[in-house]
UniProtKB/TrEMBL annotation:
SUPFAM superfamilies per the UniProt record, alphabetical: Acetyl-CoA synthetase-like
Taxonomic source organism: Mycobacterium decipiens
GO cellular component: cytosol
Protein name (Swiss-Prot/TrEMBL): Carrier domain-containing protein
One GO term (biological process): amino acid activation for nonribosomal peptide biosynthetic process
Positions of transmembrane segments: none
Taxonomic lineage: Bacteria, Bacillati, Actinomycetota, Actinomycetes, Mycobacteriales
Classification via PANTHER family: FATTY ACID SYNTHASE, NONRIBOSOMAL PEPTIDE SYNTHETASE
Molecular function GO terms recorded: phosphopantetheine binding
Residues of the Carrier domain: 108-141
Keywords from the named record: Phosphopantetheine, Phosphoprotein
Amino acid sequence: GRADDQVKIRGHRIEPAEIATTLTELDGVEQAVVIARQDRPGDKRLVAYVTGTANPGDIRATLTKKLPPYMVPAAVVALETLPLTINDKLDTRALPAPHYGDTDAYRRPTTTIEAILATIYAQVLGLDRVGIDDSFFDLGG
């Protein structure tokens, strides 16, 4: 890839196209694009957008076995089609914001140590709250 396609996230230089290539090699993934999104100031995360029949959760689980942790997207979003501009280029502005983690399954900390760790994780990740069942890495850490 070209140098201008590289992104730097948490000190790692990453080529999103390399991750997209790995995605398209997976069963059920037809097209894939990976971008760095900054949905909160200072919180840049990799997000994969895929078309096909593969389950986004299964895709992330498979990527954790094939790629180093810093290259695994924080979220995988399944789309019917990738949005294109009039010139048939990817329309990154039309890509929907991902849902990072399952907020419905939030379980609050019950011990002092859990509360301290959850607070630290939330601060590091720039989140309002982190539950005791949440994975630091699944949330983008």
